[in-house]
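user: can you give me the structure for this one chain? tokens are fine.
assistant: on it. calling the predictor now.
[tool input]
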Amino acid sequence: MKLRTTIRAASAAVIALGVSFGFTAVAGADGSSSIWSQTHRQALFVETDASSGNTILSYHRASDGTISFDGSFATGGLGASATNGSSSVADPLASQGGLTLVNNNQELIAVNAGSDTVTVFFVNGTQLTPIQQISSGGLFPVSVASNGRFVAVVNAGGAGSVAEFALLGGRLFPLPGQVRSLGLSNATPPEFHHGAGEVAYTPNGKFIIITTKLSPNEFGGYDVFSVGFNGALGVSPVFTAAVNALPFAFVFDNAGNVVATEASNSSVSTYHVNSNGTLTNLGNSGTDGAKALCWISGANGYYYGSNAGSGTLSSFDENGSGAPQLVNATAATAHAGTTDSVVSPDGSFLYVESGGAGTIDAYAIGAGGTLTQIETIFNIPVASEGIAAS
């Protein structure tokens, strides 16, 4: 009841403050309001994670998948890098999901790891308007997820934590008492391999899943918190150890199973999410024989892993039991420090950051999950991390 009352009060506050925090309409050529004039412009957004001032780079996505720069937008916060020498040069956040579109792509949320905040932008095509900068509820935020009503932010610094917010009127409102420790043994900034890697809601919205990399016990696994109707998180997580060490990032297949990268041996493993929050492995892992398979995107039943240590992309699918199968160990060659990736909403194109080289590679997704490179964009700031597409 307390959470319900809080959400209602927050909603009333949004209405009351609509003048102060509302969106500014843009006058069209005929003098009419044209705030939605760009909403049909497909966009790609990239986060620089710069410690001197975090910025979002915006690109227009053409129908053939190519992109063109359209502007940069300051988050008002600072980026930061995890510690571990050269590894963090290409991968400063050591995470997936640091830049996330929510609410049917109407808002974009970016983590500011150096400021312990997140920034919310209103999205108008390729143009961004900052709405809010708010505490992440912990130290060194690295990943954001939403189920529509609520937003979860995972913090990788110190003991690590997950904080949950109500999403109302394009703004975030912390849910009272909904911050949970992950119990990690880490510092701030976190050590690269021992922080949390990603947070995501299950497709049915009943659970939040968080990867814990090499914590605990230098192996790592999956923390699963239940999510109540009013956003109330379980008091403590249900932990499932990974099949292979260093679980990093994951997506969900059409059945709602977890398709996860486990970087110690560059493999992909799949898990069924049980009603009690435990995860059941669905079969043998698939490995690509490359180095540092950490990030993953899915499209049309195929899954694309970024191998940061090899500068390549590998592709996987699943057998009839849901176990992963390697399709192509080198589905595409990218650039040094291949990291975060995103698939266009229609499943036609894959965009991949290479934080070591400062590039974005664009690929057309073909029959059988094949990748055909269509473009490389250079001069992206090195160590940029976080990517989203509308």
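assistant: here you go. The first helix runs from residue 2 to 16. The CA atoms of residues 295 and 306 lie 5 Å apart.
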